[in-house]
Amino acid sequence: MTKSCILIGAPIDSGQKRAGCLMGPDAYRVAGLGPSITDLGHQVADWGDVILPPLEAASCPNPAVHSLSETIGWTQALAKRTAEALDHGHFPILLGGDHSLALGSVAGAAAHAMRIGRPLFVLWLDAHSDIHTPLTTQSGNLHGTPVAYIAGHQGFEAFPPFPDPVPEDRICLYGIRSVDQAEHAALLKTDMMICDMRVLDERGIIAPLREFLERVHADNGLLHVSLDVDFLDPSIAPAVGTTVPGGTTFREAHLVMELLHESGLVSSLDLVELNPFLDERGKTAKLMVELVGSLMGRKVFDRPTRSF
After folding, report:
1. Annotated catalytic residue within 13, 98, 183, 230
2. CATH classification at residue 77
3. Which pick of 2, 146, 166, 186 has the fewest CB atoms within 10 Å?
């Protein structure tokens, strides 16, 4: 099925402290994301980079939290842009930027889903659970909070109210392998589908994902996919400031994307945490572009031969 894809740049660095993610959107463009998608028969329009709106003062009781006003501004702007794309029948692809962009992208997807009366599901492809709140984070990095915001947890009083919190059983954390003590305690209380690397090692890559996709299909849901570079093993994707060994391999990641394509359920996509400053000759950016190709319909036997 042909998609009308909209590229939305989100040059965000405020959700963490390691500079470089703001270069991510241009790295995806240079790596050929647009042409790669059009080569598969889809339409692509680039709406350029979202601009941070005028900021308002904001505060948080947790003194560790930094860049709160900036992150709230990005959340508002990205929610509006994502919802606009979806409301006009497009498939938005958010080019990050750190993972705090999902505070806005998923809010926009939720607003759209609420307007059309369909349930929203979220597939979180990440080494981290990102279930902190502004009150529990010790690092103060708000890129570790989107899942809690999406699920309607307390502690986000400074943020715009989430349009329609996603019930926890509609959220799948897939590939996680780095969880701190506070997050672990929160996960023990959650109804989210938790597919950590232990689960994937025991059950395989396919079975848990198919179970989640079957649930989305049965409920006639929309599916937002949030793909973090650190979902991948750092040996194949070094351009991320939060590397965790033991991630998915090249073949496993492509298989996930192919299954998502075959499901026909994905309605919006985040590409997050790419830090080109940490890359090797564009290796990670090119891999992420290839993964989007698999999500958009490229098959395993269509792989181009690499020159490196």
Report:
1. 230
2. 3.40.800.10
3. 2
